[in-house]
Design brief:
alpha/beta, Rossmann fold, TIM Barrel, 3 domains, 15 strands, 37% helix
């Protein structure tokens, strides 16, 4: 027997919901019924109110409430005796909602460690270094790299490393200076970046793992010589053939990672990805995803990243999400698509248009004078009682609203509409979904917004939509 799902909605969304379910239910494999409760705007429902009015038919497997429905689900569960869930806030997302199980339950696992560098530590106070280290760890860093400056040894390296270790951080030291490295190792640093022919003679004295690099990135022989030197002295090591920027041997450097893995199939490896993210005029997230995917497939289990330049200032968080996505794709032999929404930031995964027919129907059905805003097909749409105004220019649209609306728009409402129209124009510009009174979706960078005009109050006990008169907008959901 197929599962029977009982959907709860309001009057405005009934038409859209029934049309969508007629197509979705056979494809997703469930039977359904629709309960249209006595309220126009479904977003104003609360679970207490729903529990007194819901009537699921016999044989119902579960109940699906609108995503905006406020309150404890247990209240409805006790009333109907079957599991109750909140669906998506926009009913057009129901196909994605019922396909969510396609992602494996173990999503989120990873096996790549992130070494996050704090650049120019000698120029920072200890408090600044500790605060930055804590923030990097919160974003996903596994190791904090203390970045030193060329020149004379930094006298503060030992107390800085010791303070980081005391704060619970795993620490690496980024220096070629044997004096700085020795002081850092003494204070508890467990990784040295980097070692080549210039400083490898001292490596056996440090008692920690070192990252072996070539003297000349274009010549792997120099890396082999350092590896042989360290191996003879039983110094634990990680190999880094050096990633080079675009235009300076980028493709050849990727080939060297492949060749190094072929020659040292069991060796630990590291890639410093900042040479691309920091030195390329492009947002860092997609670059990090590609490089983490390369590392995952090649068995490079350590990446070194920085986040100095503004377009790469969230690289650690990006790498944290990217390593999970890459691990999932590799382990499950699944495309890394529609799995990690946090990494889709500039444009949304897809657009779900309402269509002019829906706008015209809403304009005929809505009885209050509040304004519903939409953005699609290159234009803004404003709908209120008996009015559907549309224009690509928000100033022209506002002028039409003022001229055609039966009720004057006060200053407070005008300010709100101006703010929302600015968001809507941004959505049109970048092909993003616009949902009134909600933040645009910027992936993991999204800053949640309060609902400024759409109240979350209990609907009237009379069972109708009297509370909806205060709502400035609601997508049909």
């Amino acid at each position: 027997m197929q599962e029977h799902i009982h959907f709860v909605t309001g009057r405005l969304a009934e038409f859209s919901l029934r049309n969508l379910l007629a197509e979705l239910a056979p494809r997703a494999g469930f039977d359904y019924s629709v309960d249209v409760l006595g309220i126009t705007v479904a977003a104003l429902m609360t679970t207490d109110w729903v529990a007194r009015r819901i009537h699921p038919p016999q044989g119902t497997s579960r109940v699906l409430l609108p995503g905006y429905c406020q309150g404890e689900l247990d209240v409805v569960t006790r009333a109907v005796g079957v599991p109750v869930e909140r669906g998506p806030r926009d009913l057009r997302r129901l196909p994605d909602y019922f396909g969510a199980s396609a992602v494996a339950e173990d999503y989120g696992a990873y096996d790549i460690e992130i070494v996050a560098e704090i650049n120019h530590c000698p120029r920072l106070s200890l408090a600044e270094i500790l605060s930055t280290a804590d923030a990097l760890r919160a974003d996903g860093a596994d190791v904090i790299d203390v970045g030193c400056d060329p020149g004379e040894p930094w006298n503060g390296v030992e107390p800085t490393v010791r303070a980081l270790v005391d704060a619970g951080h795993r620490v690496s030291i980024d220096s070629m200076n044997v004096v700085e490295i020795a002081a850092a190792a003494k204070a508890g640093a467990r990784l040295v970046l980097s070692v080549n022919s210039q400083n490898r003679h001292a490596a056996s004295d440090w008692g920690c793992t070192v990252v072996a690099v070539p003297d000349d990135p274009a010549n792997l022989t120099t890396l082999h010589e350092t590896v042989e030197f360290l191996a003879e002295r039983r110094v634990p090591l990680v190999l880094d053939p050096i990633l080079e920027p675009i235009g300076f041997g980028f493709a050849a450097s990727l080939a060297r990672y492949v060749e190094t893995r072929r020659q040292f199939p069991d060796a630990e490896m590291l890639m410093g990805i900042g040479n691309l993210t920091e030195l390329t005029d492009a947002d860092s997230a997609p670059i990090n995803v590609l490089l983490l995917g390369f590392c995952q497939e090649l068995g490079i289990r350590n990446v070194l990243t920085t986040q100095v330049i503004n377009w790469a200032r969230t690289s650690v968080r990006e790498c944290d999400l990217a390593r999970r996505l890459a691990f999932y794709a590799s382990r499950h032999r699944a495309l890394p698509k529609r799995v990690e929404p946090g990494l889709v930031m500039l444009r949304d995964t897809k657009l779900l248009p309402f269509g002019r027919e829906t706008f015209e129907r809403l304009a005929g059905e809505i009885k209050d004078h509040n304004v519903r805003l939409f953005a699609e097909d290159g234009a803004l749409h404003a709908i209120t009682a008996g009015v559907h105004a549309t224009d690509a220019d928000p100033f022209a649209l506002f002028a039409r609203l003022q001229a055609e609306s039966a009720r004057a728009i006060d200053a407070s409402h005008a300010f709100y509409l101006g703010y929302e129209m600015a968001k809507a124009v941004t959505a049109l510009t970048l092909d993003k979904e616009y949902r009134q009174d909600e933040a645009l979706d910027w992936g993991f960078l999204t800053r949640p917004e309060n609902h400024h005009r759409l109240p979350r109050a209990r609907p009237s006990l009379g069972g109708d939509e009297s509370s909806a008169g205060n709502a400035s907008g609601d997508n049909p959901s």
